[in-house]
Amino acid sequence: MSISNSRQISNILILGAGELGMAMLNGFVREKERRTGVELTVLLRPLSLGNTSQENLLRQRQLEAWGINIVTADFSLQSEQELATVFAKYDAVINCSGFVGGKGTQLKITRAVLLAGVARYFPWQFGVDYDRIGMGSGQPVWDEQLAVRSLLRAQQRTNWVIVSTGMFTSYLFDPGFGVVEREFHRVNAPGSADYSVTLTTPEDIGRLTAKIFFQRPRIDNDIIYIAGDSITYRQLAELLGEHDRCAYTLVVEDHQALQDAVTASPESITAAYRLAFARADGVYWDKAKTYNARQGIVVTDVRGWLKQHCPDV
After folding, report:
1. Residues 6+ apart with CB under 8 A from 211
2. Among 44-48, 157-161, 168-172, 242-246, the least confident range
3. End-to-end C-alpha distance for the chain, whole angstroms
4. 3-state class of 161 per DSSP?
């Protein structure tokens, strides 16, 4: 772990106010309350300011209540130089923009951050262990994440921190993902019943990332692992059975079946993701060795998430 005692970084820009962006802002607002001189700004798409949907209006009210400044930019339409001009005003950038921008967006944002000379950068790497998985995973966005890491490691001007989180907990239970079918009391395990997956809620990601950001001595140029839970699909079926008070069937989808599903529906993101997660490494790490475990920070595990979000069926 690289630790430094560099100057105070107080002017922070968070990219995006989606599910993770709002959770990140909440985490930073909590940490800001214990400090002086910290300024928080969120970057939104210009079109979002004119969005009058109830969800967006509630979000804007929350940002106002938190005292968050707002700037706008469009990653698709603006050049790297134009984005760099926006980023240059800030000491740190926390990237919660996600993959919605399409191919090349994360590289574009990272190059703009480096061009701006931002002192500290937390890239959009809130996911699996891309180094362990390596290139050629079958997920183009995962390969791009490796390219982002190469860019960051090849320079010394901007300090960076990568927070590895595993899968968002809610996504594992998303009916569209096809792993958990609560209606039929079934778990479809990608690859093996004993493959594991690491899961963290957006709320915990935001809270822990803010703590990592303000950690002293400061952490820089390192990968920090966090986890709400790390669980095998066999354990998942058992937990669901306990929660719903009925036995769950555990079905293993072998690699050939998963590959056939991708071939049959090449446009299906979920089919590609099930195949990508059908592996013994890179998508799982020991929770006991994570930042939150070492710091004694309580997080939401699968059992706790089920109690909060899934009534008995």
Report:
1. 27, 31, 295, 297
2. 44-48
3. 45
4. strand
- For the ranges 1-10, 93-102, 197-206, which has the lowest average pLDDT? 1-10
β-pairing, 167-168 vs 180-181, is unpaired
pTM for the complete prediction? 0.94
- Mean pLDDT (the chain) is 94
Place of tokens 């079934």: 186
All structural domains of the chain with their residue ranges: 3-167+198-228+282-306
3-167+198-228+282-306 has CATH 3.60.10.10 classification: no
**Tokens for 90?**
């800030």
Q: Which two tokens stand for residue 116?
A: 């701006």
270: nearest Cα among 186, 140, 175: 175
Question: What sign results for the dihedral spanned by CA atoms 281, 283, 287, 289?
Answer: positive
| CA proximity to 158, closest of 112, 215, 212, 211 | 112
Residue identified by tokens 């569209």 is: 176
Residue carrying structure tokens 């599910």: 19
